[in-house]
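Run log, item B.
One chain of 569 residues. Sequence copied directly from the ordering sheet:
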Amino acid sequence: MKSINQELHDKIGKLAISVDKLMEVTLEVGHEKLEITLAELRSQLDAPFTFVIVGEVKSGKSSFINALLDTDREICKVAPSPMTDTIQQLVYGDEERIEIINPYLKKIYQPEEILREIAIVDTPGTNTIVAHHQEITEKFIPYSDLIVFVFEAKNPYRQSSWEFFDYINAEWHRKIIFVLQQKDLLPEADLQINIEGVIQQAKKKGIIQPKVFAVSAKLELEDYHDISGFKEIKKYIFDNITGGKAPELKFQNNVNTLLTISAKLDDSMKTRIRQYELDVRFRSEIRELIDTQHQKTEKQIHVLAENLLDSYDNITRQKLDDLEEGLSFVNVLKRSFSSIFGKESSLKEWLATQATDFELKLNTSLRDKLQNGIIDVAENIQTMGKLVDNKLRYSETILKNNDEIFADIAERRINVLKDLQQSFSQFMNTAENFYDEGMVSESSKMTPNLATGGGVAIVGVILAAVAQGAVFDITGGVLTAVGVIFAGITLGLNRNKVIRKFEEEIVKGRSKMKEEVTEKLTDYTARIKHKIESNFFEFDQMLDREGHTIMRVNKVQHEIREELGSMKE
């Protein structure tokens, strides 16, 4: 069976692991203050039960400590003017010595038996320590086990003491007792009034059963033990702390402190998590906006292609009817004989006229359809860019760059967002971002248009060039094929074969036009969408890093709370 000391040693070892995990969390989130606190607590896991004595200058703290230690020596210096301008930590040592830790902290080793179980921290007055509050809180309050508030019995209502009480109680929820020192300086009736006043004040501030002791260090040091009030406070300490109970109490206090720190980390992350959630929603809304506009653009491209095909079908159907009639045996024969006498154009001339008419009708009709359709497609792309630009201008920021903990992270986020806003605005106004050399290289008309256009304003010009290039390459191909057929027609040629060949070329041209117009415009708009999205690369990386950080922190926090919960009595 393990000894009590060994069991406690093992428990402290497990607690150290939880401390290390919490330190990893503080490093992860960049909470430097709690990182310092945890580092100090880590070094104090084996320390004795610690009393921290606080109170105003001249409240009698040093005298109280000397009387509490029950020694005939003045361990803590007492003087008519304030002397304690440093924090003094009293710990057990085989011989008396003083170790200067830093300008604000010194450790005093004393061979006093009570210091084997407890350590005492004597602090400067709460009304003089303002510049060094952080030193007290980071070094001692988080791992203190009992806060002893010492008031001057004549006036226990001084503001600085109660303000410091508010800070300690709100931040760390430490166990607190109240001591009215120098009770020998006022009548019993007045003392009772002040005791009751402290009790009521403490209750108002959330202490359910305040422990208040009235003492006189002067009487105790003069051996008036029965009336000094120290019997009561020493009994409280013996019943609740010393006599072998201190190590386990210290352990449980450390567990509670770590749970408090874990909760503080959660609280500190709330704004950061909320900002992350807002940014994720903001990014999702932008994606949805881009996708919605892109879908509208694809529908417009489909409508444009269908309108072009309708016009193409009407013109080719009409021309097919003309050819079927004009190439009938009777009409060909009639035209051949009539041309001999100069009454009508020859078959060759008639066919040339048909080809010219076919080309004119195709060009005129398709150009009009293109002009109307391209406007709709271009407007959707331009609207996509403008909506994104507008969205960027009104992103919600709640994590400020003056945040107490996450100022650096907030600053980085603000800079990323500012860079995104500026780069996207510049992107929208730069024509080259919308220009596609491969798609418009055959259109010599693009050069002057690009020279005068800017940003999304150029989209319509590019789309028109892209679509017209696709359409007229194909119709030109059809016309060329038809022209070859027409040129080869003679009286002996099979009419049905000619018509069939003409129909085949029209079908091929139709299929190719539908495919190329849809494919080229869809590819172009998809590339514009991708270019718009690529502006968010750095912002997306920031979100990805932040999401992983929050996920890791939550996971480790959950593990820590489970571990600490199993240690808590």
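Observations after the first pass:
- The beta strands are 49-55, 87-92, 97-102, 105-110, 118-122, 146-152, 176-181, 212-214.
- The chain has 18 helices and eight strands.
Flagged for discussion on Thursday.
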